[in-house]
Amino acid sequence: MLTTFNEVDMSNIQEMRTRHKDAFLKKHNLKLGFMSAFVEAFAFALQEQPVVNAVIDDTTK
């Protein structure tokens, strides 16, 4: 199993969430979390670098 950790500057996303969370809650009756930003980033990464959509499958054991 491979585990990696990367530090990411989330200050822009935190600021965006703080700015829009009340209006988002009022309009959609849902809390605005961070998952939407993560999904957007993943979708962009997959379009730009399709190799990111890879799997390590060690079935030799």
Produce the secondary structure layout:
Blueprint: H1 11-28, H2 35-48
Write out key terms for the chains shown.
single chain; 61 residues; mainly alpha; elongated; 52% helix
What does this protein look like?
The protein is mostly helical. The protein has a domain at 11-52. The protein is 52% helix and 0% strand. It is built from 2 helices and no strands. The protein has helices spanning 11-28, 35-48. The longest helix is centred in the N-terminal third of the chain and has 18 residues, at 11-28. It is elongated. 0% of the residues are buried. The mean pLDDT is 90.
How many strands appear in the DSSP assignment? 0
Q: Termini separation (Å)?
A: 13 Å
Tell me the series of helices and strands, N- to C-terminal: HH
Determine the fraction of residues in helical runs and give it as a percent range. Answer: 40-55%
Structural class designation:
mainly alpha
Mean pLDDT: 90
Largest sheet entry: none
- Helical element count? 2
Shape annotation: elongated
Rg result: 17 Å
What percentage of amino acids are in beta strands? under 5%
**Which ranges are low-confidence, i.e. pLDDT below 50, for 5 or more consecutive residues?**
none
